[in-house]
Amino acid sequence: MSPKKSTTTGLAAIDPTIALDVIAAASDIAIGIDSQGTITHLKLSNDQLPLHKTSNWIGQQWNRVVTTESAIKVDELIADAVNDQPIRWRHINYPSTQGADVPILCSAIQIGTNGQIVAFGRDLRNMASLQQRLVEAHQAMERDYLRMRHMETRYRLLFELASEAVLIVDPNQERILEANPAASKILGTAVKRLVGRGLRESLPESQRHAVEDLLSRVRSTGDADSCVITGDAAGEEVAISASLFRQESGALFLVRLAPSRIPAVIDTPGSQYSVMLDVLEHSPDGFVVTDPAGKILSCNHAFIEMVHLAKREQVLSRQLSDWLGRSDVDLSVLIANIQQRGAVRLFATMLRGTSGADLEVEISGVSVKSGGMPCLGFSVREVGQRLGTERPTLNQLPRTADQLVELVGRVPLQEIVSETADLIEKLCIEAALRLTRDNRASAAEMLGLSRQSLYVKLRRYNIGEVTDRSKK
User: What's the domain count of the chain?
Assistant: First the structure.
């Protein structure tokens, strides 16, 4: 006798109802079905299954209580059970009372000799939830991957088109990992030959020691630093700045190269050039030289103190707009006027120190050519004390249109509009009081205000003396 027939004979000796209870105890749902596929018994051992109208299942065809796409699977399970085929598990979906279908892993087996079939199943909702979360996680990873690809494309485009020469250098072996065309032009070597090559090997032998010292300082302190070397046989000076940035689990050098567009003035002590440079260096007013885009090429000690820094190297190669004005607009206006007129005098603006303190300054600028290359010179004078008693501030309400204009560039437009509204309101209240000969009730009626509102505004603008005796 085969194992299958032995199992069937053993189950036949058990009452179908008892067999259904035994099977239901080992599963989440057990369904008794006759040979025609009609449901005769139903046992739910999992009360959390949100199945739809289970009270009406008895007497219905099994394939009618499942979803449409699962009906064929139910018919196949019944046919396998009737024909004594090996047991198969099928994913069957049942309508739910909570919206989404209830997934159940089902199988069926025939018991007894009268064609009675028992179908039993296991709840797959937890597995389906995990699968859904896996799909959502996979979709999120795909979106992040696409976003990273787009960011990499933008980075590559900017890196290749940037006019500033940039090198990415491995800090351990000091080998060039990436180089843009601008760096290739300055170093006189093709990009393909630069990548993988040592940074020292790409520089003149006489300048390698200076660059090694620069990288050592940046590696030990972690702060950006710079130096000037002779870039080629023609003697052209190149400013090199280096900084560290983190990527994944390590750090890399970001090395920038820029031709030094202002040649060093080598002259005998006491000459007119030497005297002029000494005067500018020790001048109490700040002096800055930039390229036409506003990148600082040189500055004196006074400007370094104004922006609260310690070393000249912390200023060089940075944008003047990092400290000038409340936004980049002031520098753009300055450069545009210099390009149109050749010079600008006494441009009032703010200078933001690194520590956060603001200085009232006036700037005069001029455009000149040095070595055939245009550059801009700016004289920066602190005028905060002189302007403190002449110009309106946020703590002092402006009284004229000229004073309101003086706020432009120092105060955001939204605050200027608010100050203007306050000025107009105060002037109107004063005019109403004059017309009514200081009759508060009549003034309030003329202005369309309640007397209480008028008293509040009188106190706000400190107009007259508001007392209980003045209320009429």
Answer: 4
Q: What is the C-alpha separation between 170 and 404, in angstroms, rounded? A: 55
Residue pLDDT, tens place only, 222-249: 888 888 777 554 456 778 888 888 877 7
Domain interval for residue 219: 162-259
- For residue 405, the one-letter residue type is V
List C-alpha distances in Å: 402 to 375, 388, 408, 424: 34, 16, 10, 14
Residue 213's nearest CA partner among 201, 227, 223, 199 is 227
A 10 A CB-CB count for 253 gives 21
CA dihedral 84, 89, 93, 94 (to 10 degrees): 60
> Greater confidence, 118 or 353?
118
What lies within 8 Å, CB to CB, of 20 at 6+ separation is 30, 32, 41, 43, 118
Instruction: Look at residue 52 and tell me whether its pLDDT is greater than 70.
Output: yes
DSSP string over 458-470: HHHHT-S---GGG
Task: State which amino acid sits at residue 465.
Answer: E
What pLDDT was estimated at residue 470? 45
Residue 85 DSSP symbol: P
Do 25 and 45 form a contact (C-beta atoms < 8 A)?
A: yes
What is the phi-psi region of residue 212: left when phi exceeds 0, alpha when psi lies from -120 to 50, beta otherwise?
A: alpha
Q: Which residues contact 32 (CB under 8 A, 6 or more apart)?
A: 16, 17, 20, 39, 40, 41, 42, 116, 117, 118
Mean pLDDT of 190-201: 85
**171 within domain boundaries:** yes
Domain end point (choices 200, 227, 259): 259
Q: In what order do the strands lie in the sheet with 250-259?
A: 176-179, 165-169, 250-259, 237-247, 225-230
Pairing of strands 116-123, 358-370: unpaired
- CATH number of residue 296's parent domain: 3.30.450.20
Give yes or no for a contact between 255 and 199, defined as CB atoms under 8 angstroms apart: yes
- Looking at the domain assignment, is residue 135 inside a domain? no
Would you say the pTM of this structure is higher than 0.85? no
Q: What are the backbone dihedrals phi and psi of residue 97, each rounded to the nearest 5 degrees, phi first?
A: -85, -5
